[in-house]
């Protein structure tokens, strides 16, 4: 996978993940072009389209569009299910996820994505394992008082 | 899930996000953001040390602002500080910021790499994963250099946690994609392959992506993965849906892993081992069988996951292309999907069937679905599905169904979406040519094409019909009659006028016997369209008219009158005026014999690949139409013309056809010799004025973003390092010209400077701007078109001949193939010095100017001294080192006559330009010059010392070089002796 974009029905970008090196200008151009293309499509249309030399796989969940760009030899249907699994993960973590959860906790959305996909490939497809990793991390932040190490944070400055 | 996990208390962040959301206008949002940025800036700059929490909060706010689409130019240092925090959330936010806002600032990269190194060695799996995620997200070359050696060890170590292994595998994959030269699996290969056997499904899922990528590049080293993959696949396929617990997805066991396994197998030919192959065939059959079973769930996720595996299995079957039974079964399965109610499945079935159509085993089976596909073309509501249907019709077309398919495609064209019309036109044109049994059908089809979709008929299409008509005398009369009829329509497309003009000009005599299409009728018909046409078409018509004078002497006076009219002979367009004048003169003074010779019928075109096919290939790129298809196309295209086609690069044929087909601007009669340089605009001399101003190149970021040439930061699909070395796909196939005789001289001009004009002739000016840092360099070439006519198929190739190749890595970014008259294009060349070298890389430039191929080669001014780092040293040190380099071969000396005035300041400037440090007060004789520097190559550093002794009386110099490497002394001495 080359990149994943989440954007709203109004065309606002909510999450972007790039797995190929691109400059900011190019990223903005791609985003603008794709958001426009995808939003212009009608509901019953197919979830795949050719775009430049990539394949775009997208699906709408409530007010959010999830949109992935994959390469010629990649599998469209399994990518569609990657999107779904990611939505399931967000849903399970936030409890009935909605767009607002992703806006206000964007960092969490990124962390969950990193556990699930890395470098554009599925890293861990088990819902249980991904959520376990995130939960552990959440616990870690709760149970790490100042005395964890000899160094207090300020000393680093 | 604990509620605390949400937001974890960064209240300030939540408030800020709310504020932004409440902004009523873009302006209000920007105002709020600027306020926040000012606040954060003051916090970061303030005297009071911020605690970790605040730092995390502000960094997170910056990240949010960046993700809103605003630029962020500070906060990187604070984010890096967070990396070394002991608190997980702070570290995590730090890493997130780095991952999203990578900055190639070398200072920071070192700090980031340090933090990563600490976390990798922390033995804390959560920290290790964070660090690995960061490397995988950034994937920069610097990170590859720092960690490509370490990560394979983590990946295969026995005590590494599963989750860390998963991250390590994909992290390594990302590094391999960016810097394949740095990721060396070597001793780890077999242990990595055996990860396919790992008990943990997650580890297998992650590792297999890495193995697939490595297998594509080194199939032999990884071939043991085939049998492991087959047995893993077989275990999954035969497992009950509950066996794999959480890896079962909507009753489908491990769909992601299954797809990846099937994908890996597509890197290899069918297994040779009979048992392995048997087991695999069994798997594939099971997958096909399962498709027929009733679904275990009504959820779309169930069917998607199941069908994802099915399509991947079909891809593998097609890849093997050796099991007729499986191929036919696959085809039948896809046939069912063609009528499925799910649009997605119909789309994929059409796509997949396209590849099946090219297999000899399944071609016939695919053809049985023709009615369904035609129906899809007519009724699908989604244009992307219709596009697939059109592709499939094209792929399944053969002699038996060509007439039907072409007719359907033509009728579809009438209502087709604008976005796909041009491609459809090309396809119809190709099919009509490829499967033409009688040429009248071919001519009819193309003329229909022009009638229905004239705007989308590119030049290649109408060039081609003319090539074919000219080459086949059995169709010429029919063609003349048909175009004559087509031109009767009151409104006909300009492309029709072009074809009509050309064909009647050549073969109008074949229908002139009929009084309804007598010469004068033909002429009047053509001329009735004249005033509605564009200049190029009018130019073509003028040529048709002069041909008429030769074919039909009775039209001479009428045509001469037309040519003589003010609207022709005084036309404001130079091309039209010139044609009118020349044709008029020619018709008045030339004898009938001369006229007949000059205006003879066009000779047959040389056999060549269809220019249309080349165009389609260029348009779609490989993959859209299978290679077989194209090869077949070439073959058959050749047949049509009655002989084996000449194979050439795509563009050479297009370029050639531009030159020899009736390109309106090319001189049809050959009266004009060579390109007219005098046509250059008077401003041509000032063409390069802007080259060396700031606007040309962004000087600020120039050094900062210098990077090894293997990383391409501006192309969507990063090219492999080897790719861009070779000629770009649009290269003209003629051999590169030998370097110009003056190219050594041009090279010498740039030894002591980096910017300037490298080359200039009447057509072209080449400017250079370059910058070097350590062993890396970047060069900007500016190609200026000094004429008023565009350069087409402009291509450049940079090569490192012979011994230079292993020493210098030179990569040229592609350059625009078209340079408008008076315009300038820029090309970036990245250079990496691997070892010391003597020769210069060659730059070959080819383009067509007014049809004539221009081909010139120059030496790129990359000389070894460009990689000098100046070294300051005191007199004592200098002489000590001088003495250390006392072996005879380490020294090179030349005594030569001054060729320029011996001005001290000029000499100093040149020595500084050379790149060494000019050392004052070292030589006891103040007249002499002494320099020191170190040449940075990737392989080694070569220290060099220089002494230049001018003798003003004799107008001579003595130049002495000492270096730790003899070849370097010698080369520097050669280069420098030419400078003074």
Can you characterise this structure?
Chain B: Residues 748-861 form the Clathrin adaptor alpha/beta/gamma-adaptin appendage Ig-like subdomain domain. Chain B: It is a peripheral membrane protein. The complex is a heterodimer of chains A (157) and B (980). Chain A is α+β, with helices and mostly antiparallel strands. Helices cover 43% and strands 22% of the residues of chain A. Chain A contains five helices and seven strands, in the order ββαβββαααββα. Chain A has a five-stranded antiparallel beta sheet, sandwiched between helices. A two-stranded antiparallel ribbon of chain A has the order 6-7. In chain A, α4 crosses α5 (127-142). Chain B contains 41 helices and 16 strands. Mean pLDDT of chain B is 82; it is low at 1-7 and 621-733. Chains A and B meet through β2, α1, β3, α2 and α3 of A and α1, α3, α5, α7 and α10 of B.
What's the short story on this structure?
Chain A has helices spanning 24-39, 76-94, 99-104, 106-116, 127-142, and strands at residues 3-8, 13-18, 48-51, 54-61, 64-70, 117-118, 121-122. Chain A is α+β, with helices and mostly antiparallel strands and 157 residues long.
Intertermini distance of chain A: 39 Å
Rg over alpha carbons of chain B: 35 Å
What sort of overall outline of chain A do the alpha carbons produce when their principal axes are compared?
Answer: globular
- The count of DSSP E runs of length 2 or more, i.e. the number of strands of chain B, is 16
Largest beta-sheet characterization of chain A: 5 strands, antiparallel
SSE series of chain A: EEHEEEHHHEEH
Helical content of chain A (DSSP H or I, runs of 4+): 40-55%
Mean pLDDT of chain B: 82
Portion of residues in beta strands of chain B equals 5-15%
Instruction: Please identify the oligomeric state.
Output: heterodimer
Indicate the radius of gyration of chain A in whole angstroms: 18 Å
Q: Counting H and I runs of at least 4 residues, what is the number of helices of chain A?
A: 5
Helix and strand composition category of chain B: alpha+beta
- Give me the secondary-structure category of chain A: alpha+beta
Largest interface: A-B, 81 and 92 residues
Which residues of chain B sit in consecutive blocks of at least 5 with pLDDT less than 50?
A: 1-7, 621-733
Largest sheet of chain B: 6 strands, antiparallel
The count of helical stretches of chain B stands at 41
């Amino acid at each position: 996978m080359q990149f994943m974009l989440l954007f709203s029905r109004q065309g606002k970008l909510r999450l972007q993940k790039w797995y190929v090196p691109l400059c900011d200008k190019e990223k903005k151009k791609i985003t603008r072009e794709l958001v426009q293309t995808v939003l212009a499509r009608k509901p019953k249309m197919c979830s795949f389209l050719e775009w430049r030399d990539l394949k775009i796989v997208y699906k709408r969940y409530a007010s959010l569009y999830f949109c992935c760009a994959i390469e010629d030899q990649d599998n469209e249907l399994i990518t569609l299910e990657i999107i779904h699994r990611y939505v399931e993960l967000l849903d399970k973590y936030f409890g009935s996820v909605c767009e607002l959860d992703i806006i206000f906790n964007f960092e969490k959305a990124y962390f969950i994505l990193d556990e699930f996909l890395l470098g554009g490939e599925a890293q861990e497809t088990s819902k249980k394992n991904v959520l376990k990793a995130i939960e552990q991390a959440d616990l870690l932040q709760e149970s790490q008082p100042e005395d964890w190490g000899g160094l207090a944070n300020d000393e680093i400055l | 899930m604990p509620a605390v996990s949400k937001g974890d208390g960064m209240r300030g962040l939540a408030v800020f996000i709310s504020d932004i959301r409440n902004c009523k206008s873009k302006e209000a949002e920007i105002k709020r953001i600027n306020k926040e940025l000012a606040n954060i800036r003051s916090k970061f700059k303030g005297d009071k040390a911020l605690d970790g929490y605040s730092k995390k909060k502000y960094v997170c706010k910056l990240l949010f602002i960046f993700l809103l689409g605003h630029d962020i130019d500070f906060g990187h240092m604070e984010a890096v500080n967070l990396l070394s925090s002991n608190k997980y959330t702070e570290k995590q936010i730090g890493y997130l910021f780095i991952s999203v806002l990578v900055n190639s600032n070398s200072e920071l990269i070192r700090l980031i790499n340090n933090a990563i190194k600490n976390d990798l060695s922390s033995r804390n799996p959560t920290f290790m994963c964070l660090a690995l995620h960061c490397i995988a997200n950034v994937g920069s070359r610097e990170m590859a250099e720092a960690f490509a050696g370490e990560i394979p060890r983590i990946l295969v170590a026995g005590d590494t946690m599963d989750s860390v292994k998963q991250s390590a595998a994909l992290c390594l994959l990302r590094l391999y994609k960016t810097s394949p030269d740095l990721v060396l699996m070597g001793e780890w290969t077999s242990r990595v392959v055996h990860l396919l056997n790992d008990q943990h499904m997650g580890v297998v899922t992650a590792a297999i992506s890495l193995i697939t990528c490595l297998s594509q590049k080194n199939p032999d080293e990884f071939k043991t993965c085939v049998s492991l993959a087959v047995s893993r696949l077989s275990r999954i396929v035969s497992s009950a849906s509950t066996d794999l617990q959480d890896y079962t997805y909507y009753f489908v066991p491990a769909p992601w892993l299954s797809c990846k396994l099937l994908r890996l197998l597509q890197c290899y030919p069918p297994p040779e081992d009979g048992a392995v192959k048997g087991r695999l065939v069994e798997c594939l059959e099971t997958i096909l069988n399962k498709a027929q079973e009733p679904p275990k769930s009504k959820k779309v996720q169930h069917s998607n996951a199941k069908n994802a595996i099915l399509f991947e299995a079909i891809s593998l079957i097609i890849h093997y292309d050796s099991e007729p039974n499986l191929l036919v079964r696959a085809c039948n399965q896809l046939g069912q999907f063609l009528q499925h109610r799910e649009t997605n499945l119909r789309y994929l079935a059409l796509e997949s069937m396209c590849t099946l159509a090219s297999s000899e085993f399944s071609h016939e089976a695919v053809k049985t679905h023709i009615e369904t596909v035609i129906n899809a073309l007519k009724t699908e509501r989604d244009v992307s599905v219709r596009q697939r249907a059109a592709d499939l019709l094209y792929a399944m077309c053969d002699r038996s169904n060509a007439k039907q398919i072409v007719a359907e495609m033509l009728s579809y064209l009438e209502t087709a979406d604008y976005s796909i019309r041009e491609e459809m036109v090309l396809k119809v044109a190709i099919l009509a040519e490829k499967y033409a049994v009688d040429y009248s059908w071919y001519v009819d089809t193309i003329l229909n094409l022009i009638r229905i979709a004239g705007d989308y008929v590119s030049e290649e299409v109408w060039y081609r019909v003319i090539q074919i008509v000219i080459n086949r005398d059995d169709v010429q009369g029919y063609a003349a009659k048909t175009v004559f009829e087509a031109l009767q329509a009151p409104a006909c497309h300009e492309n029709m006028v072009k074809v009509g003009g050309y064909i009647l000009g050549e073969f109008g005599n074949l229908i002139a016997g009929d009084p309804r299409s007598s010469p004068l009728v033909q002429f009047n018909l053509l001329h009735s369209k004249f005033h509605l046409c564009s200049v190029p078409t009018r130019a073509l018509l003028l040529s048709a008219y002069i041909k008429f004078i030769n074919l039909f002497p009775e039209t001479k006076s009428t045509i001469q009158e037309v040519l003589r009219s003010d609207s022709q002979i005084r036309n404001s367009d130079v091309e039209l005026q010139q044609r009118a004048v020349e044709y008029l003169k020619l018709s008045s003074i030339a004898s009938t014999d001369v006229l007949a010779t000059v205006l003879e019928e066009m000779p047959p075109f040389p056999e060549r690949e269809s220019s249309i096919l080349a165009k389609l290939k260029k348009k779609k790129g490989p993959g859209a139409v299978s290679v077989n298809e194209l090869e077949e196309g070439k073959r058959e295209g050749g047949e049509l013309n009655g002989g084996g086609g000449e194979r050439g690069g795509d563009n050479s044929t297009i370029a050639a056809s531009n030159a020899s087909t009736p390109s309106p601007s090319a001189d049809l009669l050959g009266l004009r010799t060579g390109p007219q340089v005098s046509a250059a605009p008077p401003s041509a001399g000032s063409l390069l004025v802007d080259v060396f101003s700031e606007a040309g190149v962004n000087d600020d970021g120039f050094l900062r973003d210098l990077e090894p040439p293997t990383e391409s930061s501006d192309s969507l699909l990063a090219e492999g390092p080897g790719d861009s070395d070779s000629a770009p796909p649009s290269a003209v196939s003629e051999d590169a010209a030998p370097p110009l005789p003056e190219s050594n001289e041009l090279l010498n001009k740039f030894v002591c400077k980096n910017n300037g004009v490298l080359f200039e002739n009447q057509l072209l000016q080449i400017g250079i701007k370059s910058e070097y840092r350590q062993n890396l360099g970047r060069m900007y070439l500016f190609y200026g078109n000094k004429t008023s006519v565009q350069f087409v198929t402009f291509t450049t190739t940079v090569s490192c001949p012979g011994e230079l190749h292993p020493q210098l890595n030179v990569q040229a970014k592609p350059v625009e193939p078209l340079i408008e008259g008076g315009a300038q294009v820029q090309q970036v060349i990245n250079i990496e010095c691997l070892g010391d070298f003597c020769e210069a890389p060659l730059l070959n430039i080819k383009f067509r100017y007014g049809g004539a191929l221009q081909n010139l080669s120059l030496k790129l001014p990359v000389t070894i001294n460009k990689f000098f780092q100046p070294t300051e040293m005191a007199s004592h040190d200098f002489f000590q080192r001088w003495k250390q380099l006392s072996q005879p071969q380490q020294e090179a000396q030349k005594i030569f006559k001054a060729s320029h005035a011996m001005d001290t300041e000029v000499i100093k400037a040149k020595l500084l330009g050379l790149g060494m440090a000019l050392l004052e007060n070292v030589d006891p004789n103040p007249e002499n010059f002494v320099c020191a520097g170190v040449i940075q190559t990737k392989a080694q550093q070569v220290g060099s010392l220089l002494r230049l002794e001018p003798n003003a009386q004799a107008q001579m110099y003595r130049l002495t070089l000492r270096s730790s490497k003899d070849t370097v002394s010698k080369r520097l001495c050669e280069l420098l002796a030419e400078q003074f």
